[in-house]
Amino acid sequence: MSTPAPVEGAGLGLRRSLMAALEDGAADAVDFMEVAPENWIGVGGALGRRFRRFTERHAFVCHGLSLSLGSPAPLDEDLVVDIKGFLDRHDVRCYSEHLSYCSDDGHLYDLMPIPFTVDAAEYVAARIRRVQEILERRIAIENVSYYAAPGAQLNESEFLCRVLESADCDLLLDVNNIYVNSINHDYDPAAFMDAVPAERIAYMHVAGHYVEAPDLRVDTHGADVCEPVWALLERAYAKFGPIPTLLERDFNFPTLPVLLQEVGRIRRLQQAGRPAASHD
Question: Which CATH superfamily is domain 10-273 in?
Answer without folding.
Answer: Divalent-metal-dependent TIM barrel enzymes (3.20.20.150)
